[in-house]
Amino acid sequence: MFVQACDVPAILVSVMLTLPACAEDAELKALCDEAESRYTELFGHPSSEEEGVTVVTMYKYRFCPQDLTVPVGTTVRWVNVDKRTSHSLILKDEGEPESDRLFPEETFEFTFLTPGDQTYLCGPHWETQEMIGMITVSP
Ligand SMILES: [Cu+2]
To answer: Model confidence over 36-50: pLDDT tens digits?
Structure first.
């Protein structure tokens, strides 16, 4: 039997602990909650309250959310909420050049006009830290 979800009955918890994917999910969720707290601290409101854009935070070598689905025409705003580390964006499937380095509190925006899945990267950290994100643009 294959257990896909992490919310399995308690009796399976010991099994879950052996599933690295679930532990990773929990870790990423905690990290992304922290990123959102940072965002609110820096900008005075939750990222979901930004008008006209969908926010992805960049924090501790991760994109939050790591997987995002948006309707075509959506502008995504990446925001570095780290304290010291700079990041960049490589939207390789869009054939765009790498963005400038984003220092803490800096942002980068891109409007997705082509439906489909794409993987994007942080220039300095995708290889060493696997700082990689996914966007699904729905028609
Ligand atoms: Cu980075």
So the answer is: 999 999 999 999 999
